[in-house]
Write a structure and sequence with these properties.
This protein has 5 helices and 10 strands; from the N terminus they run αββαβαβαβββββαβ. With about 220 residues, it is of the alpha/beta class. A hairpin with a 7-residue loop joins strand 7 and strand 8.
Length: about 220
């Protein structure tokens, strides 16, 4: 019930506040019974809701979100939407978070598990990504994949901004070397570069909500 109400609310404000939400690049092909770990860059309060749209429209899976304990305490209704928090400064809390996250990925519904390896909202100014180790120690029992998500927002030539989302190539969550923050940062950098190049060329991708911007005004 809570998710249904949120979805109706999001449908309204997405169309009110954004020109559209676009998916740049191809949809990754992932089997329905394979869970997804979804690390995303974190530029705004909206990011988890953009990921929820992808979970529903692209992956067609339920989504859970890992957040800091302070965030969940500040927005208690997040608990009802699959968000759970932890305190990274307490070793016992981190162990409990890793155990619970593994249980979620091993669940029969093979969900999407979203987290933000930057650990905080960071303006998208083109700076190098500084990522925490996060879920490097996560070891689900069943096969799972990691799919990096890049989010950026551009007003372009419209009054309302357009959201551009891009998904990286899936890779096995059991390949330990892929968990290194430096490797994930490289994935984000590549997604940022490819997405920005596509936007400059006016290649808006697939429309998930609303409509893409009109052709860029070259004279402007």
């Amino acid at each position: 019930m809570h998710r249904w109400l949120l979805r109706r609310y999001l449908d309204l404000i997405w169309r009110r506040d954004f020109q559209g939400i676009q998916l740049i690049g191809d949809r990754p092909v992932i089997a329905p019974d394979v869970p997804i770990l979804l690390p995303a860059n974190h530029t705004s309060w909206w990011d988890a809701f953009f990921a929820l749209l992808l979970a529903e429209k692209v992956f067609r899976k339920p989504m859970y979100t890992l957040a800091l304990e302070d965030t969940v305490r500040r927005y208690p209704f997040f608990n009802k939407l699959g968000c759970y928090g932890f305190n990274p400064g307490q070793a016992s809390d981190v162990r409990a978070m890793l155990r619970y996250s593994g249980e979620l990925l091993d669940a029969p519904q093979a969900p999407v598990l979203l987290y933000f390896p930057e650990g905080r909202i960071t303006p998208n100014l083109g700076n190098p990504y500084v990522l925490r180790h996060g879920l490097r120690a996560l070891k689900p029992k069943k096969p799972a994949v990691m799919v990096p998500l890049y989010v950026t927002v551009h007003p372009l030539n419209e009054r309302k901004p357009t959201v551009f989302l891009a998904l990286g190539e899936p890779f096995s969550l059991h390949a330990d070397y892929k968990h290194r923050p430096a490797v994930l940062a490289e994935s984000f950098e590549a997604l940022r570069r490819n997405t920005n190049d596509a936007v400059r060329r006016g290649e808006w991708g697939e429309t998930l909500v609303g409509r893409g911007p009109t052709v860029l005004d070259e004279a402007g």
